[in-house]
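To: structure desk
From: M.T.
Subject: fold request, one chain
Message: Could you run this one when you get a chance? Sequence is below, nothing fancy, just the single chain.
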Amino acid sequence: MYERILVVCTGNVCRSPLAEALLRLQLQADGRAEATQVQSAGTRALVGKPADETVLYVARQQPRLLQELERHRAQQINPTLLWWADLILVMETAHIRQLAHVDPQAPGKARMLGHWLGTAIADPYLKHESVYQETHSLVEQAVASWRESIHG
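Reply: Done. Structure tokens follow.
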């Protein structure tokens, strides 16, 4: 079982905050929120920014998810965060390479969020709302696919 999960994307305003929020809700539903901490960060984070407005709009039908997302503020990956995590979930293979520039040990803890689905999760930032909806659905599926691996 993993105790500290870091979810990484590029800007930390779309994909990783969504995955972080979904993971937290999944852990709460499974009664494991106390045992596992989740954070997110970006490789080129828009530091201090909230979750993207379209991410919030797409999540509006899920009040608990929306509430989690509204608390989010973007942060940059750094050596301390990478050391803290025992599992790093990334959206694209490029993110794994970028982690290595910050901490050469980090790629050994990194896995693709879409691993069990056999896909990377493309960045919807500044694209049409339908792309955000597709990304939301894919991230939901990917988070659900990690359930057993996270719980051990």
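Reply (cont.): Residues 129-145 form the longest helix (17 residues). Let me know if you need anything else for the meeting.
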